[in-house]
Amino acid sequence: MTSLCQRIDGLGPSLVTGPEAAKRLGIEDRAVYPWRGYLLDSSRTFWSVDTIIDLLSLLHRYHFTRLHWHLTDNSGWRIPVKGYPRVTEVSSACKRMDFAEYTNVDRNRLASYQCEWAGTDNSGYYTAHDIQRVLEVAEGYGIEIMPEVDLPGHAEAIILAYPELGNPEITAGTAHIGDPTPGKNLRNDLLWPSDEAFSFVEAAVDSICDLFPSHVVHIGGDECDMVFWEGSRSAQAWMKSHDVADGAGIQKAFTDVARRRLDAHGRTCAVWDEAVATGLREDDLVCGWQDGCGVDTARKSGNPWVFYDAEYLYLNREPSEGFSGAFGMQPPLPIDRILDLHFPTDPRMVGVNVSLWCEFIPTVEHALDLLFPRILAAAARAYWGNSVSREQLGPLVREEWGRLRSCG
């Protein structure tokens, strides 16, 4: 990415966003949405600080205003947590996963990926100094960073370091990873309801608030397989003693702990749209991502929300059937779908966010191969909203992409 950013410095202004694009379109230069974001997945792939700084330069060119920094997941935990030294010793040092359970990929391409990349080094975490470097560059570009610590699911890396935070039956040997449960096999990637796990959540939120100044902190809330809690004797006992009816109540308990710590720091939270089902506060920001339902869930929540829709803005999906470039997920997301995108009319929709999840993106070259040229169309849509047609945007995107290709 460094070489790309150096080369585009001499290209002149963006042709898809900003004043030059407005001039070409014959309209006023005014962005529709204040939130024009990009999700950086540093858990699945640990990106160096220099790479992130180069990314910020690219986002600045296309008038992005937010970086959603996904810092924790099953694949690795990328920030230190006070009082939990094994986070940086163990949780940040996981080998690259094989993602064998993924069904939304071509199986032959998955096998090739596994042969080349599974089990390779993917270790690393960001120190306070690293984060400050990124924050200073982002501030200079007018980009606000929203950090995410994903709770209470996607916790495999943390549980690897601190088994007592996960399923106690697995730790005791009375249950085993892979055991059949209703609809899926048992995993150990959920924090378990306990004083120890709630204390960890408090420490994690305190740490991320100390590291980042953002008023909004994302606390995850997606893809929690509640059947694992609901089928567990220990979790059932906790639910009974705390008058909690189901797994949604357990997730709410974790969210409430995180919210209380955010309150103490004067912050508010963002959540993925699944968390709507567990109850929201009026100032929670909802990120609507799920295919076919996430945006609708976010709209109906009555809360402020951001358009993350995977069907249109998950650029980790391959751009076409039979794509032979960098390995991505399915179904394909062609650039025409982004150009045709029409956003809902809703005053509570504060913006648009592009995502590049990095399970199968181990290098900058792989990332660029999937991002371009679709990120140009996504940036243009996020900037102009519904005010500009596909027929108007298409030529500008093609011309900008041609300029980028001409510089190598």
Description:
The chain is of the alpha/beta class. The chain has 18 helices and twelve strands. Helix 17 crosses helix 18 (390-406).
Gist of the model:
The chain is an alpha/beta fold.
Please tell me what the overall shape is: globular
Main beta-sheet annotation: 8 strands, parallel, barrel
The ordered string of helix (H) and strand (E) elements is HHEHEEEHHHEHHEEHEHHHEEHEHHEHHH
Structural class: alpha/beta
Helical residue percent? Answer: 40-55%
- In quaternary terms, these chains amount to single chain
Beta-strand segment tally: 12
Which characteristics define this entry?
408 residues, alpha/beta, eight-stranded parallel beta barrel, two-stranded antiparallel sheet, 12 strands, globular
List the helices and strands and how they pair.
Elements: H1 2-8, H2 18-25, E1 35-41, H3 49-61, E2 66-70, E3 72-73, E4 76-77, H4 86-91, H5 107-117, H6 128-140, E5 144-151, H7 156-161, H8 168-172, E6 180-181, E7 184-185, H9 195-211, E8 216-220, H10 226-230, H11 233-241, H12 247-264, E9 268-272, E10 285-288, H13 294-300, E11 305-307, H14 310-313, H15 335-339, E12 349-356, H16 364-371, H17 374-384, H18 390-406
Helix pairs in contact: 3-6, 9-12, 17-18
